[in-house]
From TrEMBL:
Domain (N-acetyltransferase): residue spans on this chain: 1-133
Record Gene3D superfamilies: 3.40.630.30
Key word Transferase present: yes
Keyword Transferase tagged: yes
PANTHER family: FAMILY N-ACETYLTRANSFERASE, PUTATIVE (AFU_ORTHOLOGUE AFUA_6G03350)-RELATED
TM helices/strands, residue ranges: none
Organism: Paenibacillus flagellatus
GO molecular function, one term: acyltransferase activity, transferring groups other than amino-acyl groups
Protein name as it appears in the record: GNAT family N-acetyltransferase
Length: 133
């Protein structure tokens, strides 16, 4: 297993998302999104197949958001998600300016994992809202 900060291809990105049960993306939009990422983390098996990925997006100064933390179904619950978060946490600690904010949206089962990396609820001071376009 190889973990690197590198950008996956749009095709790999789409295939991993679909395998993990996430919504589908089209290749042109995936290319645009991947190209605008601050950082992309990939995990490949020994045959170079993409089995995990995550991205950091944001303004690069004040706000950094972890998105697309995705692992292939056959690698779930193997500790891979934690290894990826450790790499992302180290990256942000070493790269983001002091006083900037790292944020993420978590599914309920992952909350405890994110807390071990220093993430905390923003509620009651704030709450996340979204609008699907």
């Amino acid at each position: 297993m190889n973990i690197h900060f590198e950008r996956p291809s749009p095709k790999e990105y789409i295939e991993l998302r679909q395998a993990a049960g996430h919504d589908s993306k089209d290749e042109a939009r995936a290319e645009r999104a991947l190209g605008r990422s601050i950082a992309s983390l990939t995990v490949r098996d020994d045959g170079s197949k993409l089995i995990g990925m995550a991205r950091v997006i944001g303004d690069g100064a004040y706000y950094f958001q972890i998105v697309d933390l995705t692992v292939a179904p056959e690698y779930r619950d193997t500790g891979l998600e934690r290894k990826m978060m450790a790499e992302l946490a180290d990256y942000l600690t070493g790269s983001a300016p002091k006083g900037s904010e790292a944020i993420l949206m978590a599914d309920v089962p992952s909350i405890e994992m994110y807390k071990t990396y220093g993430f905390e609820f923003t509620y009651p001071n704030s709450i996340s809202l979204r609008k699907m376009l």
